[in-house]
Predict the structure.
Amino acid sequence: MGTIWIIGGIAAVAASFFLSGGDDVWQSLDAAGVATALYLMALLGFTTRKPFGTRTRVFVWCVFILAGTGVYLDWSGMSETAHRQKESLLKIRGTVSRSIMLNEMPAPLMKVLRSYAEQPPKKRGSLGKAFQAMYPADSVGRNIHTPFDQQDNLKIVVASVSDTEVVLIGQEMSVAGADRSKKNFDGRAGMVQARAILTERGVRYEPEN
Amino acid sequence: MNQKTEAGKGWVRRILFGSIGLLCLAAFYASWVSGHPASFYPWVTAARITIEEGLKGFSGQSSLPAGRYDVLAALLIGFVISPALFLFGWRFLRTGQRSRMAAMLLFVIGGAVTISVFAPSFPDALRSRKRMMEEKEHRAAWNAKDNLMQALNIVALDAQSYWILPPAKGGGNKNFEGYRVPAHLGSRGAGRVAIVKLGTGELRLRGWSTDYPESSVLLELDGAGNRYHFSYEGAFRL
């Protein structure tokens, strides 16, 4: 009889674990947890039947409820902590990306603005020409960011160059931003993105996701 | 005939129990070899997988769903097999259905694993709740600080542009004198940015959050229009 209970329990718990499988391991574990709780209740009811006395049964059920509550609290607490830590790690990565963008993107535009402002008003050409004179290789659509290492997936693209405006768009290729549905510059969705704009009024920086 | 059937059943039972035991041992050995020793707590193993996914995301890798057999193995050993061995061992001891030796063995082995899984869960749960509350507070302060630093950096860019531009273009001509924080940059969510010191040679910007009125972040820009120093007060000194 014990063998049947063990095999039946394994089959029921394993089936609920695999049938509820999603991307998150907790989805499977929670479903299997419910099946396990039902199994344990049935097992407890079966094994503590007569000749066990009522007092013993009440005691065993009290211990089971108490221990079950402890397991539930520990289980749910760990799930929340693990998810928060995962979210935290991804958030830190997003913060690092945003800081790098804020450091890298305005720098070339500021350099152009300085050189543009230092020219005598009569000799000042357009902002676009000043940018092209300083960065002749950086045409529209080109990624101007040199990766720091293999894990650096940031791209800083020259989005537009005109007489009055130069726009750079920075986009992470694998780091999610706050809005997971927001469309990115390259057609992806939900990645960290920001825009730096050089105009005659200065350099503006706009975080977009 | 009956004796033969009973003997046959005994062999089937031994083979089944032996197979389950070998499978459990194999799962534990595989988890040990893979560098992630299995635990009897499936939620601890699941938490490890979740955090590993976070670490992969942190290093810019895509997080593929990880293998989860060790989670299931821990759940089956700790919550299905061991309690069944323990309870049936106890029952056999009471009813005398099996040999006392075998019943005692089931009772002791099953009981040891079952108690080791259930007993520490209460204190562990209390400890993890306390830790979670502390982390929540820490993270909220960290988020507020991060938002303020970004807001300060954006205002600093605006101030640097002002420093560079000539007066005809609305600038200060290599001077911060006359600079004002634009209204749309001075307030962002719960964060506020204001000038605390303005001189020909330097500009000091202070950012604070309405959620942390006693704490602030200070950003100083030097006379050449460069950002050069961040300093933190109160809860932002993390």
